[in-house]
Amino acid sequence: MNKVIRQSLTHTLIMLALGAVALPVLAGGGSEISEAPYNEIQLNPISMMEAETLVAQSGVYFFDVNTLEIWAEGFIPGAVFFNVQNWRELLPKNKDAVMVFYCANRLCTASNMAARETMKLGYTGVRHMADGIYGWRLSGRVTEKP
Description:
The chain is an alpha/beta fold.
């Protein structure tokens, strides 16, 4: 009888698991499911190792696109806080200058958007560091505080 109960329980659990998989999965705020946007402008990625070699180099700009709270916890040395309304005024005159944009981590999209908007203005040296400030800190790299 134990064997019959175990088999019945196993079948029941399997059916429940399959039923759970079949339930609709909704993400976001309950709005209609839509296709992810496609960006015509592709980002030029930069690793933390490569970015670290550019810190404090003349003509290289680091832009931190985090919230003010994350910025206050520490940023890449020399980085400029970019999450402001007059961000265009922060850009260098030289449209070929190397600019590294970053935000919190790979889940943050603020730096993606900032980098793409900058590229739309004709800047050619735009780089994107996806690991962000959290990756930078976790790797033990030096940061500054305001």
